[in-house]
Design a protein that fits this description.
With about 270 residues, this protein is mainly beta. The protein is built from four helices and twelve strands; from the N terminus they run H-H-E-E-E-E-E-E-E-E-E-E-H-H-E-E. Strands 1, 2, 3, 5, 8, 9, 10 and 12 form an eight-stranded mixed β-sheet that branches. Strands 4-11-6-7 form a four-stranded antiparallel β-sheet, with no helix packed on it.
């Protein structure tokens, strides 16, 4: 497999996003409008009896944004690194235990991929109380070549796919708002990591290598998200974090005019 030296980059780079490009995918790490509205107005402080004046009230969502995990210690839950997704001219010599190899469609057509089961973390019962957070570092190498007689659009996008198996989601009355169907025991999520779309002139080549990290905001999943977004009851959301979980990592993306690419990521999970 080809290998090119990596050069670190400190932030996400998006080059010349083309007009009409698809919007970034919905991320579980970004608060929804409903959640933002809940925390936009501070609730009035309750009137406490004089005898309890020294007792501090528990902080609310309006106070701290995530009241469930407030004041808890961080608990590290494990780490994983995915197999590499590679774009090559010929996959006949590729080792599937090391990489998932893809041969591109003829230019200028784009090629899309969805690769599951690139890494797995198994969490025991009660591994975390109300939150699964992450630190994720994707590593990307992409080479584009326009061998056509006319200008053409080069692109590469890659996202992390996260699948959480949890028996609480076996309840057929629980409906995934993203699909309109029962969860079937599985919550599927996506985390955008890299998008680059630009035009190459005939005979032009381009190359990028990126290492960049994103860290937890709202988390991969939280008790609050399970109730506010996914429709679980408070009891079901509490039970969700008491059950063992299998968390599987994959990748999804699209590329065009790509003559070579490597895409993989490392991820560390932590909770409360």
């Amino acid at each position: 497999m080809k290998w090119i030296a990596l050069v670190a980059a400190s932030a996400i780079s998006v080059s010349s996003i083309a007009a009409g490009a698809a919007p970034a995918e919905k991320s579980p790490d970004v608060l929804s409008g409903a959640q933002l509205r809940k925390s936009a107005v501070r609730a009035p402080a309750p009137l406490l009896p004089a005898l309890n004046a020294t007792a501090a009230a528990a902080p609310t969502v309006e106070d701290v944004g995530d009241a469930d995990s407030f004041g808890r210690n961080v608990t590290y839950l494990g780490l994983a690194q995915t197999l590499t997704v590679s774009v090559l001219d010929d996959c006949s010599a590729s080792d599937p235990t090391v990489e998932r190899c893809i041969v591109a469609n003829p230019a200028p057509s784009s090629t899309s991929f969805v690769e599951d089961g690139l890494a797995t973390i198994n969490l025991p019962t009660k591994a975390t109380k109300s939150l699964i957070c992450f630190a994720l570092t994707p590593i990307i190498q992409v080479q584009w070549e326009n061998l056509l007689a006319t200008p053409a659009q080069a692109r590469f996008s890659g996202s992390a796919l996260v699948t959480i198996d949890n028996e609480v989601l076996d309840d057929p009355t629980l409906i995934d708002p993203n699909t309109g169907l029962p969860f079937g025991g599985v919550l599927e999520l996506g985390l955008s990591t890299f998008t680059d779309i630009h035009t190459l002139q005939p005979g032009e080549t381009d190359f990028k290598t990126m290492q960049m990290s994103r860290s937890c905001i709202a988390g991969i999943v939280s008790k609050r998200a399970l109730v506010d977004i996914y429709g679980l009851t408070e009891t079901q959301a509490t039970q969700f974090f008491k059950k063992p979980m299998t968390i599987t990592f994959g990748a999804r993306g699209t590329f065009a005019l790509t003559s070579f690419a490597n895409y993989f990521y490392g991820i560390r999970l932590y909770g409360d």
